[in-house]
Amino acid sequence: MTDTPKNNEDVPPTISEGNKHLRHEDDDAIDQRQQQTDPEGKPLADPNPEGGSAMKQSGASGDNQQGQGDTPARLGSRAKSYPRPPFPEQTQELPGSFAQMEPRPDHGEHSWKGAGRLKGHVALITGGDSGIGRAVAIAYAREGAHVAISYLDESADAKDTESVILECGQQCLLLPGDISDAAHCRAIVAAVVEEFGRIDILVNNAAHQQLFNDIDEITDKEWERTFAINIHAMFYLSKAAVPHMKDGGSIINSASINSDQPNPSLLAYATTKGAIQNFTAGLAQMLAEDGIRVNCVAPGPVWTPLIPGSFSGEKVSEFGANYPMKRPAQPVELASSYVMLAEPMSSYVSGATIAVTGGKPMI
Question: 182 burial class (0-12, 13-18, 19+ CB within 10 angstroms)?
């Protein structure tokens, strides 16, 4: 049996002298010694035995501190403030415009703060004028990338996106035209290489969808156009871009929860999204030895012009209400996934699908 220490000199110190310089005293921070033991297995003293405010991380909800930036608690509060259905009934002609949507989507114009994670990179983003593509373009620019955005003919939205990118001090190249045409896909890749000398990031994001309740309603032309924009263009663009991408390059494809849980009313669209996941997984393996990573993001419902452009006003009004978070995502809520997949620190992430589905499981 060991002897009971007779004085404080016999008690093992709770903090080793050698590590004392690493400790930063903060009355509002959780002490890292909690739940730890000394060399004899005895619990170390809890410096916050009363709990209460001392148990909160510095800057947490209830601190009421100023100048702390966006803490997790504050970010959570902001997420709760995002619009929820019912929305005003509204429709648009495809491809649609974010400027005509009510409420107007949040692409991160006022909220995304960059940290230089993509400094000096060059990115080509299809569908970069609005929706997820615009949010990604803004995030990439604020992270230090030069951005080229491809779009059909939504010039007003594209010019607005360009102005936000230029305000970040980054260059922006606008590339209008129809990516369902293979020659156009090759031309826009060539334009990016001519302008910037290379491509580091390719984001295949542009998409087309329409709702149909019966297979007889889907024309051959509609089926073919959906495939041409959603998956054929992805192949053309990737094939053209790869020779200009160096070790560390990244291809990011926009899939969908429909690739795992297809909506029968979106038969053509859902089928292409399933193809995108397989294309991503196969291409990731094909390009691994070249040091080029290929991944995809699978969004759930997102508040973009594609929604009023393809749904009835009644469906738009309740869009996203059937998901666990009871609302659609705002485009800015997708941007962090695209930044993570593009940044060099994600060098071992390839062949992955990042599900951003508001709590709806995608297995």
Answer: middle
CA distance 208 to 95: 8
CA angle 103, 155, 225 (to 5 degrees): 90
- DSSP of 49-104: TT-GGGGSPTT-TT---SS----HHHHHHHHHTS--SPPPP----TT--GGG-SSP
Among this protein's residues, is 269 annotated catalytic?
Answer: yes
pLDDT in tens, 151-170: 999 899 999 999 999 999 99
Counting DSSP H helices and E strands in the chain, the numbers are 10, 7
Catalytic residue from among 140, 151, 236, 269: 269
Tell the burial category of 3 from Cβ atoms under 10 Å away from its Cβ (0-12, 13-18, 19+): exposed
Q: In sequence order, which residues have a C-beta less than 8 Å from that of residue 246 and are 6 or more positions away?
A: 198, 200, 291
Q: Where are the domains of the chain?
A: 90-97+117-356
State in words which class domain 90-97+117-356 has: alpha beta
Task: Read off the pTM.
Answer: 0.79
